[in-house]
Design brief:
This protein has 883 residues and is an alpha+beta fold. The chain has 32 helices and 30 strands.
Length: 883
């Protein structure tokens, strides 16, 4: 099977989308077709032995549309996604500009046309040559002369609509072409009748048809539909903002070492194995591994980490992240389309272009909707003529039915919401593979969580230190314990060493170190014999003291074990010195997320390979409904299947590697903390951060998107169900109310704009669990990291500016900048960082809603300096005023 993308031209509505889909699906060898009206693209999965791309393109062209393989665009070759994106954007801009020119010209001509046609009825002063029955033919000719250019300017409706009608695949343009065409033809017929009346001196006929020309209706219908199309195009362009921002993240150039010299080359030309040089403030062009030097890298745009991460030799760096301090070199490992950023861009683009199951309902309706509407319009005309009304009355109602029924809103209801939703998810570091995944997320009722690396941090940490030897202080005990464990490579030993370093406890040197695999270690420290390990090891070594002491130690070790912790016993010269308990600790973010899952009505299940005691301890701590212990990676899939067999919709959350079978089996597989190793094949949703809170955000966003789609579909269906009978004249017998074709075309255009605008509300979505929900522990930890990092960055003394300011009695000055271009929390952070880095700035706070940044100054800083800092960060400063 081959998967290929095509550019499709000529599509204007949901009926077009349905026609293209139906046409390609009929081809022998086609397995799946996804046609996206917004992007004008089609993705086809087909059997290469039965079909080729040329045959698919010919089939689409056969029903009146244009089609060509996406990679056949010359400008997009060799440049990766950036070039392809630029070609798409350029094409969209050209189309929008062309539509704007057409619209302006149509309005300029429509104004005098409406003045001539309706001026006298509205009491406006009209030149005498255009008034009175004797000048009726002059007025009619003037209206025709003004109408014809408008029809020519908007000839695309006739070209596309009538061609689709001939190919028996009518679309929205067919309705507009028939409606406005019928008005024009009736106007010409009226002119002939007027000419006959003048020739036969029958002024009654002239009077009758002078007020039934309908030229202004033909022109107004086309102009109003074009207004709606233009507003729709402008609104739709906003749906790709998130994708555009991702593309803009990629640096255009890179500095590499070539023949011992530094050479600047386009980022697309960096090859795997090249040595890339990165200096302060530069963006990293490709993924790679640091070979020399060091720096602090801001990874917020990709992983969402708020604190820059220190990179040393051996550490990986990710494309599109920014080096804040230090200079280093790295060896390129993933380049071009393989970089993390390129994978993210592809994923977001494909998700936005894919089709949700709910969209197929709109497609089915649209496929039969247009022919049915044409039938209703014809039936309307016949019924009114049979009922005794004149032809003009019947025609007016039939035209109103045609123009008010265009299924634009129906076709836009789902794809706009999906595209905005997937783009919004990307802003939060949540990569959703398809529209189907985004829709299905809202219906899950059970969340199965892998423990290690998902609920917990994935690496052991010291949780308890208990000194048993009264002659030792806690600091001395930890110092000796760290010295003893320093020679071991076991993760539990490393946790002890890290604890000592973190507490600032200096360790002494150990001698005669020996490790017993799976048991413990021994060494001499300050002339004393030390042992560390489990109880079995101590009993084997006969290292324990009296039976009473052994029983006490056994009891304490058991207490820690019952809490899901691993206790390490330390013995000095045959006497128990102390116990250090180590555990894979629960993340604060996981604790908050699990609480939120329960508030959302979801059942939470934990899977772990740990023993039952450890699993039960964590289950109780987090109040999880069920914990399944002693589970092998191969058995996780069976657990997911068992919940599905009970009728549950299951989301499996794991690390995306050893959980792959379970992720694939689940209704929604979510790979958490994927970093640079995105588990695209096994997961439906990929999270760039190690936070369960993003799972909550993904589910909330899915629910918001589905609600938005339901609302859009309801109004689209409701509008047509209500509008068609009114347009047909259902209210005329009882209330004398009719819907003119002009009002109908305006209402139709407005409905499309309303649906798109409603979908764009998703851009203001905010998760219930933001950074503030991470808990005070995380905030304190981030503060510690910031302090320690500040001490290590050259040129920064690490002095608390606020205290210094208070000591010197300085008065804080404030200035407010208006900043355009900020869209999300990442933008907010970038602007705040840029301003905080200016000398003399004490702090900076950004208000996203007001698009302002307020800075507190310890000294007078020029407005231009502040504005330049914002501009350098990639945003547009509008003004700067002092408070």
């Amino acid at each position: 099977m081959k998967k290929e993308k095509y550019n499709v031209t000529g599509m204007t509505c949901a009926a077009c989308q349905a026609n293209v889909t139906r046409c390609v699906q009929k081809l022998d060898g086609v397995e799946e077709v996804n046609v996206n009206l917004l992007s004008g693209q089609m993705t086809v999965d087909y059997d290469e032995t039965k079909l080729d791309s040329a045959a698919i393109a010919r089939a689409v062209e056969g029903i009146g549309y244009g089609a060509s393989p996406a990679d056949a665009v010359p400008d997009a070759k060799g440049g990766g996604f950036r070039s392809e994106w630029e070609v798409r954007q350029s094409r969209a801009r050209e189309e929008q500009q062309s539509m704007k020119v057409r619209l302006v010209a149509s309005i300029v001509l429509l104004i005098p046309l409406m003045y001539v046609a309706m001026g006298s009825m509205m009491g406006l002063p009209v030149p005498g040559i255009l008034t009175g029955m004797e000048n009726a033919m002059i007025s009619a000719l003037t209206q025709l002369i003004l109408t014809v250019p408008i029809l020519v300017l908007n000839r695309k409706f006739y070209k596309v609509g009538l061609k689709a009608l001939v190919k028996r695949a009518p679309n929205m343009d067919s309705l507009v072409a028939i409606g406005s065409g019928a008005s024009l033809i009736y106007g010409l017929f009226a002119m002939y009748r007027m000419a006959w009346g003048f020739g036969h001196q029958d002024m009654a006929v002239v009077h009758e048809y002078a007020h039934a020309l309908y030229f202004e209706s033909a022109a107004m219908i086309l102009t109003l539909v074009t207004v709606g199309k233009y507003l729709e195009a402008r609104s739709r362009s906003k749906t790709s903002d998130a994708l555009g921002k991702l593309v803009d993240l990629a640096p255009k150039t890179a500095v590499i070492i070539k023949n011992g010299q530094e050479v600047t080359v386009p980022a697309e030309q960096v090859a795997a194995g090249d040595i890339v040089v990165i200096r302060p403030g530069e963006s990293i062009p490709v993924d790679g591994v640091v070979t020399e030097g060091a720096g602090y890298v801001d990874q917020a745009a990709i992983t969402g980490e708020s604190i820059p991460v220190e990179k040393m030799p051996g550490d990986t760096v990710i494309s599109a992240t920014i080096n804040k301090n230090g200079t280093f070199r790295f060896r390129a490992s993933k380049v071009g389309e393989d970089t993390t950023l390129s994978q993210i861009i592809r994923l977001v683009d494909e998700a936005g272009n894919s089709k949700a199951p709910i969209a197929r309902l709109a497609d089915k309706v649209s496929g039969i909707f247009v022919p049915v509407v044409i039938g209703i319009a014809i039936l309307t005309a016949i019924v009114w003529i049979v009922a005794g009304q004149d032809f003009e009355f019947a025609l007016s109602n039939a035209i109103a039915v045609l123009v008010i029924s265009c299924p634009c809103a129906l076709g836009l209801a789902t794809p706009v919401a999906i595209m905005v939703g997937t783009g919004k998810a990307a802003e939060y570091g949540i990569l959703i593979k398809s529209a189907e995944s985004l829709e299905n997320l809202h219906s899950i009722d059970t969340v199965i969580l892998d423990k290690t690396g998902t609920i917990t941090s994935g690496h052991p940490e010291v949780t308890d230190i208990e000194v048993l030897d009264p002659s030792m202080s806690p600091e001395e005990f930890l110092s000796r314990a760290a010295a003893l464990e320093a020679g071991s490579e076991h993760p539990l030993a490393q946790a002890v060493v890290e604890k000592a370093k973190g507490d600032g406890v200096s360790s002494v040197q150990a001698e005669d170190f020996q490790a017993r695999t799976g048991r413990g270690v021994s060494a001499r420290i300050s002339g004393k014999n030390w042992l560390a390990g489990n109880l079995a090891f101590m009993e084997e070594e006969k290292a324990m003291g009296p039976e009473q002491e052994t029983a006490l130690v056994r009891e304490k070790m058991g207490q820690y074990a019952s809490q899901g912790k691993t206790p390490l016993l330390f013995v000095r010269d045959g006497q128990a010195a102390g116990i250090i308990a180590v555990a894979d600790t629960v993340r604060e973010t996981s604790r908050a997320a699990i609480r939120k899952f329960k508030e959302m009505g979801l059942t939470v299940v934990m899977l772990t390979g740990d023993n039952k005691v450890t699993a039960e301890a964590i289950r109780k701590e987090l109040d999880i409904a069920e914990a399944v212990s002693d589970v092998l990676p191969t058995e996780k899939e069976a657990c997911v299947r068992s919940w599905q067999e009970k009728g549950h919709k299951v989301a499996m959350v794991g690390d995306g590697i050893n959980d792959a079978p379970a992720l694939t089996r689940a209704d929604i597989g979510i790979a958490i903390g994927a970093g640079t190793d995105i588990a695209i094949d096994s997961a439906d949703v990929v999270l760039m951060k190690d936070s369960l809170q993003d799972v909550v955000t993904a589910i909330e966003l899915s629910r918001a998107v589905v609600r938005n789609i339901h609302m859009n579909l309801f109004w689209a269906f409701f509008y047509n169900i209500l509008g068609i009978p009114v347009a047909a004249g259902a209210l005329f017998p009882a209330f004398g109310l009719r819907l003119s074709p002009m009002i109908g075309s305006a209402a139709m255009s407005l409905s499309s704009v309303c649906v798109v605008t409603n979908a764009l509300r998703l851009r203001f979505f905010k998760p219930a669990l933001g950074d503030q929900a991470d808990g005070s522990a995380k905030a304190e930890k981030d503060a510690e990291k910031t302090d320690s990092m500040t001490e290590n960055i050259p040129g920064d003394s690490g002095v608390d500016k606020k205290e210094e300011q208070e000591e010197k009695g300085m008065v804080t000055m404030k200035k407010t900048l208006v900043v355009e271009g900020m869209m999300c929390e990442h933008c907010k952070m970038h602007v705040e960082k840029a301003l905080a880095g200016v000398v003399g700035v004490d702090s900076a706070q950004v208000d996203l809603e007001k698009k302002t940044a307020t800075v507190s100054l310890t000294e007078d800083v020029a407005d231009q300096v502040l504005m330049d800092a914002v501009k350098e960060a990639g945003y547009e400063p509008v003004s700067c005023t002092a408070q």
